[in-house]
Amino acid sequence: MLLAALLLAVAATPSRAEPAAPAGAACPGRADALGTARVLTVDPAETPRVGRKHFPTTLPLADMEVVLTFDDGPRPGRTDAVLDALRRECVRASFFVLGKHALAHPALTRRIAAEGHTVAHHTFGHPLLDRMTPAAAEREIDHGFAAVESVLHGRAGERPTTPFFRFPGFATTPALLDRLQQRGIVVFGADLWASDWNDMTPGQQLDLVMARLDSSRGGILLFHDPRLQTVQMLPAFLRALKSRGFRVVHVVPPRLRTASAPP
Predict the structure, then answer these.
(1) pLDDT tens digit string along 103-156?
(2) What range(s) does the NodB homology domain occupy (predicted)?
């Protein structure tokens, strides 16, 4: 199987953790690493909603370019393993974190930012917002913003530092979409799913995701970092991207502030 061959290749590489490299730079100690091909700035004023699974438009990606996104973390024992795999390949991703998990695991949340990944937002507790009143839904969104901002920056402002948001379960409403656009928040959908909310083996998930990528030739890809099958699959998946000629794009807001680069 594809997974078995790629796991052998991963096992043959050095196990030490190399420091994260700037996007587009060579990967220290790993000449064959996947790396991050380029950084794409996403301006809310120009791009309020992205992801063809949910909206008419998506990010301006070239053929064979992939944006890696992870939802529902951070979770100890899972998210840190995802970060280890990304660091080995010098790959940058976007993590749509839950506010309650950020508060419960602040060091892990700060590690995501410190290693150069984009820390985005996914509400505080993962309710389906289309089942709430607009006012209650917006309070839930703001609660998530405030929790993540307090962990990363010590306080919450009127607008999150990284104005990227994904609806839990993609349960949107026209009123909430309009409200977030007014506030300058980019709503992320996805172009393709890993479907890792369904139980499957890591090998089955790898085959599924690569088949979808081969068909779509890139796009915004959705994973869930708390899912064990995703954690176990990820090193082989990154090597598969490299071997098939895919390139990773890292998305950032016009002004990115992280725990490693305070204002």
Answers:
(1) 999 999 999 999 999 999 999 999 999 999 999 999 999 999 999 999 999 988
(2) 64-249
Beta bridge partners of 69: 94, 222
Q: Which residues pair with 119 in a beta bridge?
A: 95
Helix pair 79-88, 106-114: axis angle to 10 deg: 20
Q: What is the pTM of this model?
A: 0.88
Q: What would the DSSP string read from start to end of 49-79?
A: EE-TTTSS----PPTTEEEEEEES---TTTH
Q: In this structure, which amino acid lies at residue 96?
A: F
Alpha helices, DSSP H only, in 96-133? 99-104, 106-114
Angle between helix 228-243 and helix 202-216 axes, rounded to 10 deg = 40
Spans of all domains in the chain: 2-6+48-252
Across the chain, which distance is largest between two alpha carbons, in Å?
A: 53
Going by DSSP bridges, is the β-strand pair 186-188/192-193 parallel, antiparallel, or unpaired? unpaired
Residue 170 zone, left/alpha/beta (φ > 0; ψ -120 to 50; rest): left
Catalytic residues: 71, 224
Going along the chain, which residue ranges are E strands? Answer: 38-41, 49-50, 65-71, 94-97, 118-121, 164-165, 186-188, 192-193, 218-224, 247-252
* One-letter amino acid for residue 255 of the chain: R
Q: What totals of helices (H) and strands (E) does the chain contain, helices first? A: 8, 10
| Integer angstrom CA distances of residue 244 from 62, 65, 85, 134, 231 | 15, 11, 18, 44, 21
Neighbouring C-beta atoms of residue 263, cutoff 10 Å: 6
**Superfamily name and number for 2-6+48-252:** Glycoside hydrolase/deacetylase (3.20.20.370)
